[in-house]
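[job 0412] stage=fold_complex status=start
inputs:
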Amino acid sequence: MASGRSNFSIRHQPGFTTVAVLCFALLYLPIVTLVVFAFNAGRSVAIWEGFSLRWFEAAWNNERVIEASIRSVQIASVAAVVATIAATMAALATTRTRPYRGLTFKYAFINQPLMIPEIVTAVALLIVFARIKVATGYSGLGYLIVAHTAFCIPFAYLPIRARLESMDLTLETAAADLYATPWKVFTRVTLPLLWPGIIAGLMLAFVISLDDVVITEFVKSGGQDTLPTYMLGQLRRLVTPEMNAISTVFLLISILIVTVFFFISRRST
Amino acid sequence: MPETPERNAIEVRGVSKVFGFGPDKVVALDDVHVAIRENEFFTLLGPSGCGKTTLLRLIAGFDFPTDGEILLHGQDIAPLPPHKRPVNTVFQSYALFPHLTVAKNISFGLEMLGRPKDEVDARVDEMLKLVRMEELRNRSTAQISGGQQQRVALARALAPQPKVLLLDEPLSALDYKLRKEMQIELKRLQHETGITFIFVTHDQEEALTMSARIAVMSAGNILQIGSPEAIYDRPAVRFVADFIGETNFLEGSIEERAAGGARVRISSGAVIDASVAEGFQPSGRVTVVVRPEHARLSAEGGQLAGRLSNIVYFGTDTHFHVELDGGGEFIVRRQNARDDRGTARIGDPVSIVIGAGAAQVLRD
Amino acid sequence: MSQTAETARKAEHDDVRKRWLLSAPALAIIFMASIGPLLVVVVYSFLTPGPYGDVKWAFSTDAWISVFLQRDIFEGTLGIADAHLQIFLRSVRLSLFTTIATLAFGFPTAYFIATRPQRTQALWLFVITIPFWTNLLIRTFAVQEVIRNEGILNTALVGLGIISAPIQILYTDWAIAIGMIYVYLPLMVLPLYASMEKLDFRLVEAGYDLYATRFRVLTRIIVPLVKPGIVAGSILVFIPSLGAYVTPRVLGGGKQMMLGNLIELQFGAGRNWPLGAALALTLTVIVMVALLFYVRYAAQSERRHG
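[job 0412] stage=fold_complex status=done
writing structure:
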């Protein structure tokens, strides 16, 4: 109190700000390092040898990387779209109602993929799909798509359900009062108002599918690497900045989608 | 209830509504009968939870009655879904579609009815003019004020020319001044369109100033139906007298019966002449009601005597609280005049003169 | 019953049926690719391992017995399965350590965000969430690059003369712990923030008014009030840590195994699918118990404060 006029902030706690700043710094240090060394001219991921785009070029010319990327996007697109449609229908069926028999069961069922450790689901799928592969002879991308769709559903369900629950029920009542049939109420009022939630759910599902390693690693057949499983395989060897380059592009796409998601969900609240 | 010779827009016959089952059962409406005339401004008045909004929702078709019939021009509409009823609602929260403009909100009902485009456009113009909102037609509903939203909600509900317009406490979200303005506006709209309005409110003043007739509701029952004057001056039961305006209640017993009236000895020992509602045969212990403005203070010679216990100034009038000699309190209201401030002081002994015909014996 | 009442009952009945139809696709997909296979795992855990992986259709409880016990090859007696037990203990120990460390870092961070001006809070939250939504493998890889012997941490320390030779961090328990703290930190911060955001700072004012010091305000007012967030964050970090697979694989290098890697091993080189199934179910049960504990706690605190 040397100044005689200390400003006592009731929110302040000693050291908290330091820890928080340290936390933010440590959270970004590895990512920033990773991105910086993607542009390294040398082979090292620790010693800077000048700026170069050679590792991006190398990744671009790496057939296996491109192939895995395309496969990742294919799977994520189909899985996200199917999961979002299924989640939207499920959200419509489980919100804005008086509790009915089976409602709690549905909640538990839909959120089940979130509750079980991924490795457990992964080995379970390995067991089942191995049998089906033998029995049917089919070993295409279908297995991966079904598996991804299943764990994308709870993620897509989350924002859609939140949006539905915050929606004013009297809007639909008003539409019915103004002679709209139940189908017209849905297409003219419910769906337009639900749209931001659906888009958010779709993007979330897409990112989740794109990021998956564990389930994909166990379900994929030979030659069905996605970008994450390809990278997982490469990490066993001595890595070059090519991995950094691939990661950087991947990060950029994820951040882009999450940013859009962030602004959509912020605007809609 | 005597049948009216005029045509009924809505007739509610023996309607009950029960929510839940078993021990959680709530009876929202209990065998309600009411007939609402064509072109009438009819108000359902009562405290929250009395069943007035439930009755409105049953007429609109948002809920189905547990029992009974709802007739619209003589036809039972109770089993019809809301989009098949020529009845529109103005919601308490307005329920304007946030993704549509003002004009698109107003045209919604007409489009759903499949009216041709030029008819829809003409009708929207007409409605915008009716509620004086022409300049704001392309605004989003989030960009307009509460009062303007209210007007859009009205225009939207009136646009399809419903047989009956239902209004669910539409003014409760507005501030005092705007509410007064909209009360006049609503009366104008009802007069201009000639549509039957059924108005729900818990605000007795609103009900008295706007309605042709009022139904006072409590606990799922309609207690009294009548003109504002009838409801105010001749309340049928104690609840109505208590809910609408301020009232003095005096307990007493019948001394003597006369034609259309009775002589009542109240507990302080004083004797009052009071009127008795038609068809009511009071006996034994009764309650007598007197409106505060129907009595005046006097130095002596009134029916009741007491001591002034409090004086409360309200601007337009002043309330004098009198502690009656035999126990109990009585309030006298006096209109304030500039040159007469009165000389009464707290503690003064006073006498209360009850105007002729002001006292009334009530059913409990 | 009147005709209208009949209509109402039918409408309600139709509504419930429509709701089942609408949820059918989601339920079917999740059954097909998550719950159904889990039931098959239960069956597999009671079968006999096949010679080249997969199973023989013969009932056996061996898999379940060998989750915890092992048969001594020479004497034929049963003893505690040391190898499994060690991995179980390491998994629990590492998960607990991760939970406590993320709480130690996450609590001040969440508090920092919650005490920013209203407008910037969302931005700080966004900054925390970005790494969370980026690929887990990439984040683990980023940590690997920092802590490896030739990584920038060791290079910098050697360069500055603090150490003479690189410290071996990678492929140790420390590496796994650092990696898990890094990847799961946002899972701690988000629920903590959610309950701190609701914190009524007038209560903190009241605490100071009643002569509490900063430390007392923290331990006697803030911490008890945000306890639901602490519990939620701890569960959210503990559960995925226990089932972690990628982080220990990349940073533990296959030597320092956790439960997830032990399970995988049975389906690969171990060629003991029933044991893998039994281990997976054991993990599931532990996670379920933790979740159940949390759900009951949440319901209780809701009843108390709701």
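[job 0412] summary: Chain C touches chain A through 90 residues (CB under 8 Å).
[job 0412] exit 0
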